[in-house]
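request received
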Amino acid sequence: MLKNITMFLAGKKWAYWSLILLLAFFSYLMLEITLQYVPMRFDVAFLKIKQSQVQLPFYRVAFYVHVYTSMLALLAGFTQFNKKFRSNSSVHRNVGKLYVAVILGLSGPSGFIMALFANGGFSSQIGFSLLAIFWMTSTLQAFRSAKNKDFIQHRNWMILSYALTLSAVTLRLWKMGIVWAFQPPPMDAYRIVAWLGWVPNLLVAFLLWKKKPF
Amino acid sequence: MKTLIIVLVVVAGISAFALYPSPEVMPSKLNEMQAFRDSVSKVIEPELPSEVTKNLVIYSQEDLIGDWVGWVESLDSIKTEYMEDEYYHPWYFTNLHIDKFNDDKVVGYLVVNGLKKEIGGTVKYNEGVYSMNLNTPGDLRYSCSATISEMDSVLSIINVHLSGANDFEMEKRLFAYDPESSVNDIDWPFIDDSNKKIIRDFYVDENGDTTVYELDSYFTNTDAAYKYNTSKELLTESDVENMKKGDILVLRNSIFARHGYIFKDQKFMNYFGYAPWYVPCQTEVAHELTDLELKNIDLLLRYEEHAEEYYDVFGR
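response:
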């Protein structure tokens, strides 16, 4: 099914541009979320209900590293899946390096620290921690396979990595959908999306996994 | 190597900002609220409590002094949403407070629809019946006559103008702050009928035909609101984090209700009016709040604001 869809969409200009537009729309929403935290304050938005964690200095650092740098990872989607920019282009390489550096050096580790203190108890802490770990490992694998010039594996791992990057968007969409449909207590909704936000993304990425060059 | 340096610089830069504020500027409004309470209690002169007798049945004119609460059906017509030309009359939980008598002059106030109106008039005693003619100077809407017989416990209000209201009855209720007072005494959930959502449901009958029908779903509270007493126990984040906004609203406002606060919002007046202990007789309760209550208010307020901003939207 999914293969048929991707085969159908492959090479279609309108499909590519509508995906780019969709990504642009959600990137804009994510930018708005980021801007809530500029200038740096400790009593706004998410932090209103994280008061005992905000007292911890390293949590504050992790939180703001995560908030300010994660947007950059989302931007990679605009250029990196474009054929023109691939094949030895400096744009593809530089944006790729930025992507890897942001995830492995900034956004990933800080996300992991935040995951250890996630709201909703043990289950959502495990959920978010696994997300951070898979995110970083897939990105690292993608980087290594590119270094080894194994571009099939590079593609596979990068799709996986970017699928997990998109969990920032899908998690929030799931939350909206669940609240719209069932009006659960807020923390129950949060516990559900701690897993639902990224596991389906991972599955879709696995379905797109290829062994042969294409 | 270059990348590593850039990463370190970014982390260091953000750390510098994130670590800069000292814990005192942290967002808890607790200190602010405590300071406000203390400043208010310095300014407020302790009012001489009116001489309320414990009698709920009238033996003498002095027993009339106190708080008389009851439900007023206003003759204001409010249009219903469901049908054309259908109207209903809103009910108001109301307090008629008799403060004191100067010979045959009555001094008191009336609390209706979130307003406290000074009210005055005369009292007459005739063949075992006390009758009072009360009004607010310059405001005809708050004038009424009240009568009660000796040995009776029900004050009948007749000939009311409360912008047009049916005759109604009031009972004396003794006010005292009691942390034990519980929301569990209220038999109904808190319902905000201005905040409605239509939900669709369906059933399948024996022929296998499906019928879809619509239900009105109102903003309300859940059982979580009945688990805690916010004037007695200190709530923690894990108690509150899974509460829906309705529960938080009820728990936070129950603190003010115990202190006899006159809610500006008639929804809360009516909700707490069902509690046998609620007497709306204070316009200012800030100076009476205990430290425990302030801590709970601070916590609940944060979750309330958060729920308001983020529960059903994309983001955080």
